[in-house]
Amino acid sequence: MIEEHGRYAYSGIDSRPVYDWPDGKRLAVYIAMNIEVFRYGKGKGAAIAPPDQANSHSVYSFRDYGNRVGFWRLMDLFDQLDLPVEHQLNTAVYDHCPDIMERIRARKDEILGHGITNSDEQGGLPEEEERKLIEHCTATIEKHEGSKPLGWMSPWLSNSERTLDLLQEAGYRYTMDWTMDDQPVWAKTRSGRILLMPYPVENNDNRALVWYRYSSAEFADMMIDTFDEMLKQSKDRPLVFPVSLHPFVVGRPYRLRELRRALEHIASRRDKIWLTRPADICRHVENQPKGTVPGDDI
């Protein structure tokens, strides 16, 4: 036998029960914005530079562009197209960029826990330190927003063997950290269960544009092709089409133009899809009859 994680069992998508999203729709679409703050001269860098230059002033300022400019241009675009958005939030934003939170709050967008800064991973922390990190971020968001977030995405998707257990014990109902499916799946934890929300590795501007070096047009085409194909496939079963964006990447003017093309295409089909946020997907899944959602027998 090979090593297994024990969090969820295999389930082929064609063999699962069929259910609907609200209003009988079958394709749920959400946009995830990564709102991040970075340490200067310390911690993880970005794939735009060799490792020995990862903490240079040029890499730091490349990412700082996102909060200073890119975020604002993207939010204008979301407003123009009337798109709901979810923001995975480094809590350092509250101290470093408080006006960003004012803009998010005014739209009543969803906020996720996403660590303190994306210069640090959480997967290598001892259990008690990881627990304290999660508790600190949760308490910070609750203090400023008046309620705890329902969802979490670890910085760099970095998990320890205990992350899902700690998140569930902290009251989180779903996480973005596992990317193996086009439907939400329940995962086992030592104290109950937590929902694994579909999250994109490739429909993700940082991966596609910075890591894989696709052009902006190729990235927009990939989003459109994925959307069109999933809309076709969703006639048979409910699916989730997520898009992940980073203001320091796709917030650049030449990339924003191509992103607008893709989002206009998606928004033009709003009568056929559920434009939503992950928290609403989570709530909908939680209300499905037992035996409907993979892993719900946990």
Largest sheet: 5 strands, parallel
Q: What's the count of strands?
A: 9
**Unreliable spans:** none
Structural class by helix and strand composition: alpha/beta
- What string, H for helix and E for strand, traces the elements in order? EHEHHEHEHEEEHHEHHEH
Backbone CA Rg: 19 Å
Helix content: 25-40%
Fold and architecture overview:
The structure is a single chain. The protein contains 10 helices and 9 strands. It has about 300 residues and is an alpha/beta fold. The strands form 2 sheets. Strands 1, 2, 3, 8 and 9 form a 5-stranded parallel beta sheet that branches. The chain has a 4-stranded mixed beta sheet with strand order 4-5-7-6. Strand 6 and strand 7 (about 190-195) form a beta hairpin. It is globular and about 50 Å long. The mean pLDDT is about 95.
Short structural description:
40% of the residues lie in helices and 13% in strands. With 298 residues, the chain is of the alpha/beta class. Strands 1, 2, 3, 8 and 9 form a five-stranded parallel beta sheet that branches. The protein has a four-stranded mixed beta sheet with strand order 4-5-7-6.
Please give a handful of descriptors for the protein shown.
single chain; four-stranded mixed β-sheet; 298 residues; five-stranded parallel β-sheet; alpha/beta
